[in-house]
Each structure stands twice: as structure tokens, then as C-alpha cells.
Task: structure prediction
Amino acid sequence: MKASRRSTAEASPPLASRARRHRLALVLAALVVLAGCADFRARYPGPDILFVATPEQVGVEMLRLASVTAQDTVFDLGSGDGRLVIAAAREFGARAVGVEIDAPLVQTSREHAQTSGVADRVTFLWQDLFVTDLSSATVVAIYLRDDVNLKLRPKLLSELRPGSRLVSHDFAMGDWEPDRVQRVQGPTRLHTLYFWVIPAHAEGVWQVQQGGREARLTLNQRYQTLTGTLSTDGQEQAVTEGRMAGDRITFNAGGRTFTGRVSVEAIEDGTVGVGSAPPAPWSARRVR
Ligand SMILES: C[S@@+](CC[C@H](N)C(=O)[O-])C[C@H]1O[C@@H](n2cnc3c(N)ncnc32)[C@H](O)[C@@H]1O
Result:
């Protein structure tokens, strides 16, 4: 009998003991939540810049400057109340993603998307923009600050595909010259919009084929600007006016103008012309 009472007591602990375990479980749960918060704070140290909205019509001009169409996926890094993201979907038919570190602003953005009828084409991520995967973006819009732009620049250049467009409200990108600058009158002041096209990586040494002849093209690249040399039969000519526009390359060498399309290993669809003579084809393979 004693034995059976003891076993019953072991199977079902007294109320006081159960309450202790319950308290312990609550404390453990609180510790897990606190650890999660600490981890979140470590990864999301707070906004790099506070929310200041781009006036609606200035936002639309940013998207126009980037030639946004229904084929685009537009990312607004630091999307505030979501107005650029919603305008990209509503005015241009694009898909759009807002990345915002401030949770209430993310909630406001989602509500705006619902009331604007574009919720099916937009996504708002509660995220630090420095960890966002940008590989699906064809257009990136930002309204940050000079120093934040500089911190973001390597990520934009390495993650965005060549030909993707970048538009920044009021702040430039250090020594990365914009491809275009536009001033827009807003309701209270003049705004400056900066525009860039992400250049393909053309720097390196290329083996050129042109009309049965071979040459060696050495290119140095600084953002979208190219310099270098073209060596043909031991003759070296300087590369001048070299430029990338996305994956499109253009340069002059030895009085001729070269154009083509750069991929990782090749330059294709090339034409080389002198004056008004019909252009001839050329191509190149990457040596290193
Ligand atoms: C100047 S506001 C621009 C808002 C919006 N893009 C516009 O043009 O109206 C910058 C926004 O970036 C957000 N932000 C700042 N640092 C961030 C970060 N590291 N990750 C994500 N959002 C951030 C801020 O909370 C703020 O909403």
C-alpha cells in the first residue's frame, strides 16, 4: 500500500512542486525571449538615419529617372512609410520591396499597401538594409545620407547585377560619379536626384579577335570608367573614352571606336568602326 502511494505521488507531483516548475518554465521562457532581443539588438543596432519622407512627386521623379517599368523589381532600402514602394507598384506596375528597420513604419507601410490596392505586388521586410539580399533587385532607391551611402556602396556594386539602376535622393556616392543628376522642385525646396547604372566587371586582360588578327586588351576600371591599352603586333595604343553602361562597353583605341557586351568570360556582339566606314565585328576572351 505504501509502495503504491509513493508511486502515485511520484507520477503526479504535489501542487507546490508543479507551481515551482511552472515558475521555472516562465523564467526560462523569459530568458529565451531576452536572449532573442539581445541577438536582435546586436544584429539591428538601430536606424542609421531617422525617417524623413521623400515628397510624393519627388519619389515619382526618382522612379522616372530610373525608368521603372512593370518588368522591374524595385527595392527601397530604408523604406520609411512605404510611399516609394507603393508608388512603384501603383504608378509603374512594378513589383517592389521595402526594407525598413523601424517596426511601426513597416506596419504602417503594409496598411498603406492594403488601402492602395497593391498589397499583392509589394513586400515590406522588417530588416537591416545591410543584410538584405539584393540579387533580385533591378532598381534600388535610397534616401539615406552621404556616410551611409558610402558604407552601402560595396554591397550595391557586388550584389546588384550589371545594368541594374540605382537612384539616390539628395546624397551622392563619394567618388562614384553619377551617370545623371536631376534637380526636382518639391513643395518646399529643390531636391537633387542621383542616378547610376551598375557597371559590369570589365577590368582585366582580354585576348581580342578582329578580322583574323589577334590583339591584347588590358583594361583598368574605376566604376564605369575604363582606361588601358590595346596591343596589336607589338604596337601599343592607349584606350581612351572607355566607359561601361551596365554590360555595354565603349572605348576608343588607335582612332577606332569599339563597342560590345561584357560578360564574365567574354566580350561579344562587338563592333569596331573608323569614321563613317561600316563597322566590323570583334570579340574577346578573358585571359585574366
Ligand atoms: C530618410 S528616411 C527615407 C524613407 C523613404 N525611403 C522615403 O524616401 O520616403 C530613411 C529610412 O531608413 C530607415 N533606416 C535607417 N537605417 C536603416 C537600416 N540600417 N536598415 C533599414 N532601414 C533603415 C529609417 O528608419 C527611415 O525610415
